[in-house]
UniProtKB/TrEMBL annotation:
Example GO biological process: protein N-linked glycosylation
Taxonomy, superkingdom: Bacteria
Gene: glmS
Name of this protein: Glutamine--fructose-6-phosphate aminotransferase [isomerizing]
A GO molecular-function descriptor: glutamine-fructose-6-phosphate transaminase (isomerizing) activity
Assigned EC number: 2.6.1.16
UniProt keyword Translocase, yes or no: no
Keywords for the protein's UniProt record, in alphabetical order: Aminotransferase, Glutamine amidotransferase, Repeat, Transferase
Gene3D superfamilies named in the record: Glucose-6-phosphate isomerase like protein, domain 1, Glutamine Phosphoribosylpyrophosphate, subunit 1, domain 1
Start and end residues of each Glutamine amidotransferase type-2 domain: 2-217
């Protein structure tokens, strides 16, 4: 939640513009308001501009300069107002602070600061940070004041502080992500790489307890606790600037959906060493526990079916409900945490609990340099590339394809699984095109005014219905409820009335006829049946035909849901890249 971005030695002398452009790339992290602070050329004082609303079309009137910081906000404490937008200043207006996280002890800190005579302008927890630094600066160096302040904050936090007089940016991390980018003379600090990818791909991901100090002359890394200097560990990312651009598509969401014809088959060629290492642990008898949140948890559930098909027992949990079961993890457990961002608080808590009990932690991540990756014994980066849209699509399919490979690696049939994924890639290449988009647009037009939809699927298509439904809910705000086909008769069927849209997800598998019976039952109650399947059936009132890819048919079945969510969202006036109330990485419990 919230995006932080800072630049020093901006090469264009238009640091505010650089920050604005970078913040637009971070908007997925929060988009209710934004703000920038700049240290203009000759003056020590800081100039700040902040506004409520999305940053997409925003412009800044801030003057030239080479040092600036900016923020895009996802409100936690304090409503969505200009005053609550970051950066926040101290009383002297010499210090500007950006923050991502929650300062859990801010109320007690604020009481003390009020007693000391500080004046507060906002209702945020963040503003106390600026005043605390101001207080400490009375008798301490900037470094000590910022590090000392940061250590007083309880909770998962990242901050960036701009001090005008010394032309310094200090950023500290504890629980919320930060990455430093080094250009030629220019340097950057941000919540995520896309903010500065245009300028450099040479990065250091901060770990908890690290702070970075950027000045005009140097970039130095520190241990926040001891204040002692540390060595950077720079890595050059293979991300391209185009990865963080819309590439001619109207929205990142559509671009990322269409990219899956490349990202899914790519999984068959990467991570083979890590997959084999994990498979060896499972072959040696370790029990598999999968945990994740949201979309990634549906991936966990689908993977459980893949493992079961190979005769391997796996458990799957929503990470937010895992703790009562953590006691059953031990050194005989492989705990597979699935997370696009690697920063989801509930997933991290579950992973830490499993690891504490002796489990081997395997992190299935997409973003790099995350907290989850640092915690893991084995990291499997699924390689979908930056996922900018808040609604997860290509990360989900890459994660699921990777787990499909793992399930086959355990019984020695990975080569066949690789071939199946390559074949799926070829099928998607033909099917996932403009013709399909048009077909889904036509379907969306017929569904636009409905407020409730139901979905059924069985076995592998059951988690697929969950993911399909989530895409509709997130992108279009329509209530879409997924059920296991077998659950229908146990109460659900009361919800079906004449004309209720009912999606039936199916593959050409051995449970196909049971699913078609459910479709018939829905139809008999007046349900309007939309088949999402690789075959035709009289039970379907309409059909989006998907490629027949055996077990992998759930991939195109889910892709239909992604496209439908997208077009319903566009049709209903939602912003498909940034749905209301959501943030890309949920770093709070
Ligand atoms: C759905 C979505 C969320 C995330 C969930 C977990 O489109 O984006 O449900 O899947 O918040 O996020 P990660 O995968 O980053 O742990």
């Amino acid at each position: 939640m919230c995006g932080i971005f800072g630049v020093i030695n901006d090469q264009t002398n238009e640091a505010a513009q650089t920050i604005l452009t970078g913040l637009k790339k971070l908007e997925y992290r929060g988009y209710d308001s934004w703000g920038i602070a700049i240290k203009p050329g000759s003056s020590d004082s800081l100039l700040v501009e902040k506004h409520v609303g999305k940053i997409g079309l925003a412009q800044t009137s801030l003057p030239q300069g080479t040092i600036a910081i900016g923020h895009t906000r996802w409100a936690t404490h304090g409503g969505v107002t200009d005053a609550n937008a970051h950066p926040h200043l101290d009383c002297t207006k010499k210090i500007a602070v950006l923050h991502n996280g929650i300062v859990e002890n801010y109320q007690e800190l604020k009481v003390k600061l009020l007693e000391q005579g500080h004046t507060f302008i906002s209702e945020t927890d963040t503003e106390i940070i600026a005043h605390l630094i101001e207080e400490k600066l009375k008798n301490q160096s900037l470094k000590k004041a910022v590090f000392g302040t940061f250590k007083e904050l309880v909770g998962s936090n990242a901050i960036a502080v701009l001090h005008g007089k010394s032309e310094t940016i200090i950023a500290c991390r504890n629980g919320s992500p930060l990455v430093v980018g080094m250009g030629v003379a220019d340097a950057y600090v941000a919540s995520d790489v896309p903010a500065f990818l245009k300028f450099t791909n040479n990065v250091h991901f901060l770990i908890d307890g690290e702070s970075v100090i950027l000045t005009k002359k140097s970039i130095l890394l520190y241990n926040t606790d001891s204040g002692s200097e540390k060595k950077f560990s720079w890595s050059v990312l293979d991300w391209k600037v185009e990865d963080a651009e819309k590439g001619g598509y109207p929205h990142f969401l559509l671009k990322e959906i269409m990219e899956q014809k490349k990202t899914i088959p790519k999984t068959a060629q990467i991570n083979l060493v890590e997959i084999e290492k994990t498979a060896a642990l499972i072959r040696a008898g370790k029990k598999i526990v999968l945990a994740a949140c949201g979309t990634a948890s549906y991936c966990a559930l689908a993977a459980k079916y893949f493992f079961a098909q190979g005769g391997i027992h796996a458990e799957s949990y929503g990470a937010y409900e895992f703790l009562p079961f953590a006691q059953f993890c031990n050194s005989d457990t492989v705990f597979i945490a699935i997370s696009q961002s690697g920063e989801t608080a509930d997933t991290l808590i579950a992973a830490k609990a499993a690891k504490k009990n002796g489990a081997t932690l395997v992190a299935l991540v997409n973003a790099r340099g995350s907290t989850l990756e640092r915690l893991a014994d084995i990291t499997i980066p699924v390689g979908a590339g930056p996922e900018i849209a808040v609604v997860s699509t290509k990360a989900f399919t890459s994660q699921l394809a990777t787990l499909y490979l793992l399930s086959h690696a355990v019984d020695g049939t990975i080569a066949k699984a690789q071939q199946n994924l390559t074949d799926l890639g070829n099928a998607l290449e033909k099917w996932l095109d403009v013709k399909l988009q048009k077909q889904v647009v036509e379907l969306a037009k017929t569904l636009m005014d409905h407020e409730d939809m139901y979905l059924v699927g069985k076995h592998l298509n059951y988690p697929a219905t969950m993911e399909f439904a989530l895409k509709i809910k997130e992108a279009s705000y329509i209530h879409a409820e997924p059920f296991a086909a077998g659950e229908l008769k146990h109460g659900v069927i009361t919800l079906i009335q004449k004309g209720t849209p009912c999606f039936v997800l199916s593959s050409n598998d051995r449970v196909k006829h049971e699913v078609l019976s459910s479709a018939a039952e829905l139809k008999a109650r007046g349900g309007h049946i939309v088949g999402i399947a690789p075959y035709e059936s009289l039970e379907f009132d309409s059909l989006i035909k998907t490629p027949d890819a055996g077990d992998l048919t759930i991939f195109p079945n889910v892709i239909v849901g992604q496209l439908l969510g997208y077009y319903l969202g566009v049709g209903r006036g939602a912003d498909p890249d940034k749905p209301r109330n959501l943030a890309k990485s949920v770093t709070v419990k």
